[in-house]
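Lab notebook: predicted structure, single chain.

Context: the supervisor wants predicted structures on file for every construct in the current expression panel, including those that have not yet been purified. This is the next one on the list. No modifications to the sequence; it matches the entry in the shared construct table.
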Amino acid sequence: MGLDMYLNAKRFISEYRDADKQIAEQIRSISIPGLGKRLVNSIETEAMYWRKANAIHKWFVDNVQDGVDECQEHDVSTEDLQMLIALCKEVLANRANEERVLELMPPQAGFFFGSTELDEYFFDEVERTITELEALLATDGIENWYFTYRSSW
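Prediction complete. Output recorded below exactly as produced.
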């Protein structure tokens, strides 16, 4: 048990859009048990996963969930992800200033949410968030995907 956090990416597929024709053909060539060769109209994948990164979870709750934390799926824009990257970079730049880090990205206590200390795990998750989200947003064709965030606890 604990705080599990999922950033998912979804893309709608249309065999009528030039950019999707190859994907649509590949999907159609797969016979799905019980469905045959019907066209799958969307693809969804996990884009990033965190575990007990409660300060990052709090950021999502405050910035994309209107402060409501009920383990529901919420849309996340690429601008939101860029804001999170910028905040994470500012947190790392102020790593030696605990007061400033707590102001920028305060940890959130909760039922099995993990530590609220500004320890190595906290900063490792901030660094990993930057690395993985920057790589994700630099991916060719990323503009064809949309994102959602959901937590489970």
